Fold each of these.
Amino acid sequence: MEEAHEVPPHIRLGLSRQRLISGLRTMIASRETDDRLWLLNRQGRAHFVVTPAGHEATQLGCAWAIRVGHDYVVPYYRDMTLVMALGQSILDILLHAMARRDDPSSGGRQMFGHFSSRRLRIVSGSSSVGSHLVHVAGIALAFRVKGEQDIAVMGLFGEGATAEGAWHEGLTVAGIYQLPAVFVCENNQYAISVPVNKEVPVPNVATKAAGYGMHGVVVDGNDVFAVYEAAHQAMERARNGGGPTLLECKTYRLRPHTSADDDRRYRKSEEVEAWRARDPIKRFEHYLVEHGIITHDEIEAMRREVRAEVDAATDAALAAPWPSIESIADHVYG
Amino acid sequence: MPVMTFLEAIRSAMHDAMAADDRIIVLGEDVAVRGGVFLATEGLLARFGERRVIDMPIAECAIVGVAIGAAIHGLLPIAEIQFADYIYPAIDQILNEAARLRYRSNGDWSCPIVVRAPFGAGIHGALYHSQSVERLFTSTPGIKVVIPSTPADAKGLLIAAIHDPDPVIFFEHKQLYRSVRGEVPEGIYHEPIGKAVVRRSGADMSVFSYGLMVHYALTAAEQLAAEGIDAEVIDLRTLAPLDRAAILASVEKTGRALIVHEDVLTGGIGGEIAAIIAEHAFEYLDAPVRRLASPDLFAAPFADPLEDHFMLNPQKIAAAMRDLARY
């Protein structure tokens, strides 16, 4: 709770009412869509779900720091809230999950969670953890080669990725050349079942920044304002020639890693419940109500609207055409 | 037309292509100030500056991965892996990332990079400076694998690779760098990727090869010509995609096929070529398809007699050709 005399963070950060409400809608849309995907999975209609649940504040705060269609974003498989905040619709997400022809991320080729849009400058990734951070360095290098200023790239990953060689190489190059890149660690404390103390040899991932000659920042990843403030500063620093940042957002995954995981095998339900009580969406809702941005009734109305949209998008995605068999070998070569 | 070594032709390709298109960059270990350990990139830094000619840390995954990222934002990067023996840390980037970027994004993104790597034995490079690794890249779609044998091809194919919309792995045999000279056109030109050429026309057998082995095969073919055996020597130039039409056309004419490569026998491209011939030209064959390759070892050992034994040479190729002719 801030002191009474403190300026509320949304005012201090210049976030408009419209932006806050739209952000809340994105969070709710993400959670409702995730709920639906798990349901569809259990019904045997969606083969695979990878959840962003619990990461919504981290991803929304990062999305707010991005100039959509201008800055590049290189996400990982948990970034559904992020890409929705950047402009992918509920229907886009469902078409991707249902692997339909009009899936904007991959045309039904990649399993769920591999978000991509050239229009939005969201870069397609593989499933190899950490392999995309070298691409982040390369995109940032290209800005410099082309003499482009006032632009930056953000790459996102879980803390598990920080053990990968490609992660190290990407940050090494970004640090050596002081590239306009922001590396965001969504630290949810588990790499599937392996806890963070067996993935990262230091208490904070951000500590590693010192070894790469970049800024290291740790924030509460369930506080959308703290994330936005740090991400915005990092992106601005990058855009202005101040070099790269490693931003660590501490958060928690509220569901199993994917629909193929059973998290009861490696973490206690009390731990999950304790974090559920700190659900970033509830926290954001509480803040907005407390500051008179929106009422409970308006939030419930918003949730009903979103659910109706999810229902309609589910029907549309299930009725949408599959990719044609004839297209299976398209785009192997240009 | 100027006469150049193979190495000078490679260098000329990069100079001419970079002068014509400022999207082209070069990155790798020692490529800028040093001009490359073989001097393939000599003069590029002075001419094009440090923004476009970039010394990288010893991080092969990053050399290729940064090239991929730069291509994503519209550049045409040429990544140098100092020796093909060190390409392994970059294999995930090449096969899982570069090769698949277009396909996995349904055509939304593409990855027009070139990965140059010197390869091959016979220079006392031992286990980690003389490997042939092309077999690791010829079975993944989405990438092209080019291995030139002449200076003119080296330049024309490298420029074609730079301008190609897809990732191209470009292997340069180290022994060719300074031992082979030839006329090389000035300026920008393309040799087509995916097209083999007939280096010596013949009626009695087809010898398929690439890189340094093309030269050895030509020497062997001249020896056999003196013995009354008229061999056709095909320079494949591209291993992926293979020029199936040229392979089959030659075998249909000669009825005999020998595939020669420095890469190891098991899993080498020779097996694929033999299968293509067996499937599609069986009726034309007068003899079994033969392969001559390096033994199934890691690379040439350091000791001179072991290296000599490991390496193919014109005599070994000539013997295999005689054997095939006698069948």
Note: Strands of chain A lie at 72-74, 153-158, 181-187, 190-191, 194-195, 215-220, 245-250.
Amino acid sequence: MARVRGVGRMGVHVLTGVGTSGIFLLKTLARWPRVVRSFPFLIKECFFVGVLSLPIVVVSALFIGMVVALQGFNVLNKFSAVSELGQLVALSVVRELGPVITALLFAGRAGSALTAEIGLMKTTEQLSSMEMMGVDPLWRVISPRLWAGFYTMPVLATIFCAVAIFGGYLVGVQWLGVDAGTFWSNMQSSVDFYNDVVNGLIKSVVFGFVCTWIAVYQGYASTPTAAGISHSTTRCVVYSSLAVLGLDFVLTTVMMGGW
Amino acid sequence: MGERFVETIVGLFMIAGIACLVVLAFKVSGLTTYTVANSYKITADFDNIGDLKPRAPVAIAGVRIGQVTNIDLDPKSYKAVVTMQIDADDDNIPVDSSASIVTAGLLGANYISISPGFEDNFMKNGGQIEETHPALMLETMIGQLLFNMGKDDKKEETDATNNS
């Protein structure tokens, strides 16, 4: 009986968490946007969330593109189909690797920072004092961070895709000697702008939104202690990664129709 | 860090993102080649399209001039109606041209090859290619080959019995 009760308590706990985070999201989004006044905050958050994530995204993209090209070359060489290397690199990067890996890096680099920052604001009662002064913390602290993640994630994913394809080009064409003409023309004939590039962008928009939402909520709902912040940060990264991988499967299944 | 600096860097970041999107659009997916505005549509009825898929290339003499946009089944004749989008630059396909479905390489993807005819009238938007050759199915060809070999063997046997 006690076990059953434990399961029930866990279920209620999980559902309460989902519901609270949904209400939190609605409260943040469903308000008259004061664009002009919150614009400087948004720009600042775009800088911290997006621009500072750029180095890790670019470096990982370069290496992932290079390793995909290297592995693909070895396999395709067995079937003497090396000319399809461009297609292999471009499709795998644009459809899957670009959005997913950027989202995972984003969750680790920017999401954990957001959670820790907001959690510490809560622990040191900065959020409560803001409310005391009549400044809505949802508008001043949460909303710019949420929108910044929403805007910068597709940009990061696009940069990731372009850099990864360039990495594949470096290894495939410059090092392993695939013909540059066949590399690009096979890529262009197989990659479709709407079915591949735009769908990849839609994926990254969804991932960016979900990752920032989880990060911001975990910070806002964290227990106001040192241990609480560390727990929330861990949860933020774990939940974001799981959500990204699960959603990726769902989105791919939905988008499959076009291929 | 001044506000001006931050704003400039974010602006550069956004511009870099848009530039990468442009690269993906034109260099990776080759968006310019087949836009709807610069093309016209023709159709062709095939008995069997084999493994042909939408977005497969359409070529004359191996030169890509367009792509397959749509494949439907004609409810009356049970033929496959293939709609093709041809580049507006290649508007000189004679009306008596024939279309065949061929395979790129031994195991490659199928595409449509158009052999030009000799008329002086050219295909217009909505035109139809009358003469078509269905896809060559490797399985059917092997089947026919085996069947013919079997027939030859039997013929030889009967010849042998008749002679004896």
Note: Chain A has one domain: 37-258.
